[in-house]
Specification:
The complex is a heterodimer of chains A (243) and B (311). Chain A has 243 residues and is of the alpha+beta class. Chain A is 20% helix and 19% strand. Chain A has helices spanning 27-36, 90-93, 121-125, 147-150, 163-167, 184-192, 232-242, and strands at residues 13-18, 46-47, 55-56, 61-68, 74-81, 100-102, 109-111, 132-134, 139-141, 173-177, 208-210. Chain A starts with 12 loop residues before the first strand and ends with a helix. In chain B, α1 (5-29) crosses α10 (272-299) and α9 packs antiparallel against α10. Chain B is built from ten helices and one strand. By secondary structure, chain B is an all-alpha fold. Classes of the chains: A alpha+beta (243), B mainly alpha (311). Chains A and B meet through β3, β4, β5, α2 and α3 of A and α3, α7, β1 and α8 of B. β4 of chain A pairs antiparallel with β1 of chain B, so a sheet runs across the interface.
Amino acid sequence: MTCLPQPTSDVRLGLVIDLDTCVGCQACVTACKEWNTGGHMAPLTDYDPYGEAPDGVWFNRVHSYEHTKADGCGETVHFPRSCLHCETPACVTVCPTGASYKRASDGIVLVDEDKCIGCKLCSWACPYGAREFDTDVGVMKKCTLCVDRIYNENLPEADRVPACVASCPTGARHFGDLGDPASPVSQLVAERGGVDLMPELGYRPTNKYLPPRTRKAAAPAPALTATDGVGGLLGWVDRILSR
Amino acid sequence: MHPAFSVIAFTVCSGAGFGLLALVSAGAALGLIPADRLIGFVAMGLGLALACGGLLSSTAHLGRPERAWRAFSQWRSSWLSREGVAAVATILAAVALAAGWVFLGRTDGAFAAAGLATAVLSVATVCTTAMIYASLKPIAAWHSPLTLPAYVLFSVMTGAGLLTAVLAVFGLDVRGLAAAAAVLALAGWFLKLAVWHRNADHPGVSTLNSATGLKGGTVRSLEWPHTEENYILKEMGYRIARKHALKLRRIAQALAFALPLVLFALAALVGGNAATVAAVVAAVVQLAGMLVERWLFFAEAKHAVTLYYGR
């Protein structure tokens, strides 16, 4: 059913991404690809991987932006972009076959590859570019929030987080229950003023982004001072070189 | 948006087909078109061929066409699913009318009822097609109050053009119909200009600031995540050079609206063989013009995801 389900619990699993600490190293991108090409949505097909125009299916892409603020100061922001597991995902409701669905129990948005006809309408309905079509298999693919890791009892408990979260070397990615206001991720969002992406479109994303912290104003570097009249060895060197 | 030929051909052909079916069926049911078997065969046959051909063409862009039957299941939420259901219902009603008309020479009684059902369902099907596009919020040019009226008007306009041509070929007096086709071409022209005017003022509510959550100042794309075009850019990042868009807009206006307007007006005034030739040429030229119009509908539409790529 592509009608949105009545939630059976308040659990809303998602990611909180800290744009302040992300260094754009792409570790989450490759970890995601590595896990998911053998996971629930496998394979994450690559086309012409060693040729002239390599392309392929990825669930997580890291952009880099230059944010020039109103005061003229600029900063580089690395920006991981993946499925936001929205509360009102149009990608689900536009699906004509019931292949796209949102889980009532935890809010994860998934694709049933056996039902997908590859009409691509869900990718048109998503403003975040979260869905990528696999032309080899003929079906749409997307981030699963590593549903095959987070509930996987064969993994040590510490590893039951999405691959992108597990691999982040700077701790810029956080996984948790955003439906629970007391959860660490919800607290983090509240504390740091986490935001929704494109809130004006009304998709109500579950994932939140933490904006970069305001930098302390740097103390001005001391001006260079003239060395005229310096005595001793340095003064002698200065006089010799000044001839 | 990437202008995929299968989808362009689908929307133009099925739009014209359902427009023709609506007018022929209503005309036959109301006794305005004679219950001549050959007229029934050609008019209903052409309408059904365009509608079915368009639907088949749309399955050409599916990744897994063999599963297309599944698309009838989610009519509660999906306009694409509703379109499938409405299209099949229309075709069934049209086949019922065509059977009575072609095999029995009758368009009255139950067949008239099937005709009226065909007319209503045809318009409903075109509405569902329009809503597929109008419901997509990330594409500002489509998420517009004008998308639905444009699809319905263009469908009736091309359908009326085809009906005028078919009935003229059978030697019927089509002066009234040709005049109606000319008026519809004029109305279509005005509506298309209104759509372009509206879209120029509505580039979309999202910005790269809202897309990244970075408030204030300006955000500029510094580096893409990939060096080559990916699915997102191939499917949704299509861009058309402005000078080409302007030229194609002129071609679309000439072929879809201006030329048919003149030719149908001519057919309405002169009558006879000249009218037949004018009506047939006008109908064909109009379909060609609608292909250009529909190509631009896709190629000029900007998707919000392109913001992430600094476009």
